[in-house]
Design a protein that fits this description.
Elements (H helix, E strand, L loop, with lengths): L1 E2 L6 E5 L2 E4 H21 L2 H4 L5 H27 L1 H6 L14 H19 L3 H8 L3 H14 L16 E2 L7 E2 L2 H20 L8 H17 L8 E4 L2 E4 H30 L1
Parallel strand pairs: 1-4
Antiparallel strand pairs: 2-3, 4-5, 6-7
Helix pairs in contact: 1-3, 1-7, 3-5, 6-9, 7-8, 8-9, 9-10
Main location: membrane
Pfam families: LGT
Function: Catalyzes the transfer of the diacylglyceryl group from phosphatidylglycerol to the sulfhydryl group of the N-terminal cysteine of a prolipoprotein, the first step in the formation of mature lipoproteins.
């Protein structure tokens, strides 16, 4: 049976400045956004609609604000409001971990809307462009959660080869749920979405595919994670993460239906 290594959350120090692994994972996420964005701009159907390298730097600035502010407010409002309202000083302590993907998703949408208004681009064109770059950044964040020994998994069968004891929780074998979410919600989703977006797709299709697939993947991997809290609907109990993923699944399906209906209508009238 494995034991969580419980690494020091501080990667290194420079004088009084402490650099946390969690923060480095976010830097890695933003760096891969630029790297993948430059690859995406080289794709003929992306270059044809005028995306340029200069757009990436500008979008990243707005995106960072959306991720950090939205992600933190999502954590505060969606997952642990009673604690943060009792300890308001901890709301800004992002270096301790605790960022909501769903909050970050909403934050990025608002930030991209503002950027799009400034640059004259449709919000859905922006979301179609950036969607394939998001999952690897998410994967980096989940690795940061694992290093911080956050988001422990549910109790697992001791015979599971990768069952892991989290010393900061108890001595029971648990699923390493941040690793599951890094692999499934992050890396696997990236592979599928990157290949899907390599060909021209109707407006909203790439963003819709991302929203639907992420929602489905997150709903599945939440079964292995200790829930922040449970919610019951009609006798069915789901976790908070699953509850927040359902709207993403619905949104993704709606966007895909609209995207391909519009494409069909355009073809039939041509």
């Amino acid at each position: 049976m494995l034991i969580h290594p419980m690494p020091n959350p501080i990667a290194f120090s420079v004088g009084p400045l402490q650099v946390h692994w969690y923060g480095l994972m976010y830097l890695l996420a933003f760096a891969q956004f630029i790297a993948l964005g430059r690859l995406r701009i080289k794709q003929p159907h992306i270059a044809a609609v005028g995306w340029k390298k200069e757009d990436l730097d500008d979008m990243l600035f707005y995106g960072v604000l959306g991720v950090v502010i939205g992600g933190r407010l999502g954590e505060v409002l969606f997952y642990n409001p009673s604690y943060y309202f009792a300890n308001p000083a901890d709301i800004i302590a992002v270096w301790k971990g605790g960022m909501s993907f769903h909050g970050g998703f909403l934050g990025v949408m608002i930030a991209m809307y503002i950027w799009g208004r400034k640059r004259g681009r449709h919000l859905m064109d922006i979301m179609d462009f950036i969607a394939p770059m998001v999952p690897l950044g998410y994967a980096a964040g989940r690795l940061g959660n694992f290093i911080n020994a956050e988001l422990p998994g549910r109790v697992a069968d001791p015979s599971l080869p990768w069952a892991m004891i989290w010393p900061n929780v108890d001595n029971l074998p648990r699923h390493p749920s941040p690793i599951y979410q890094m692999l499934v919600d992050g890396i696997l989703l990236f592979i599928i979405l990157w290949f899907f977006s390599r060909k021209p797709r109707p407006r909203m299709a790439v963003a819709g595919m991302f929203s639907m697939l992420y929602g489905c993947a997150r709903f599945f991997t939440e079964y292995f994670r200790t829930p922040d809290y449970n919610v019951s609907f009609g006798g069915i109990t789901i976790s908070a993460g699953q509850m927040l993923s359902v709207p993403m699944i619905v949104l993704g399906i709606v966007l895909l239906i609209i995207a391909y209906k519009k494409k069909s209508a355009a073809v039939s009238t041509a």
